[in-house]
Design goal:
Helix content: 40-55%
Structural class: mainly alpha
Distance between the termini: 25 Å
Low-confidence stretches: none
Largest sheet: none
Order of helices and strands: HHHHHHH
Strand content: under 5%
Length: 126
């Protein structure tokens, strides 16, 4: 189930700001994964390797935001950091940047050089 129309979204946020909020929340809360279903466990390696945003390209950041919407990080879609749901950060940042909820074939090709590549969902790699 997606965000409800009543779910608040940040009014002004960049993809990099959203990434840092998401990264911080997941890395702080990853210890709770054992309490969540097996899909969440699949994200452990990805979350543990998420670097600071300054070390990633925009395409890599978009890939992580897309993981929140429909991928390995989706298990926390409706979980909040006290301000917004993880999906609200990802969705708002992509919308405000005018970016789609998918990566083109060319963008996926560029991701192959990323340190995160082997930890991303298959739909973001192929």
């Amino acid at each position: 189930m997606g965000l409800a129309p009543s779910d608040p979204k940040p009014a002004k946020i960049t993809i990099r700001e959203a990434y840092e909020r998401i990264r911080g929340w997941y890395q702080t809360n990853i210890s709770h994964v054992s309490d969540i279903d097996s899909r969440a466990k699949a994200c452990l390696e990805l979350v543990e390797r998420l670097p600071e945003e300054g070390n990633l390209s925009d395409i890599e950041i978009r890939a992580v935001l897309l993981e929140v919407i429909a991928g390995k990080l989706e298990w926390a879609y409706h979980l909040s950091d006290g301000s917004y749901k993880m999906a609200a950060y990802a969705t708002a940042a992509l919308e405000q940047a005018g970016l789609p909820r998918f990566l083109s074939k060319e963008e996926k090709q560029k991701l192959k050089n990323s340190l995160l590549y082997k930890y991303l969902s298959l739909h973001l790699r192929n």
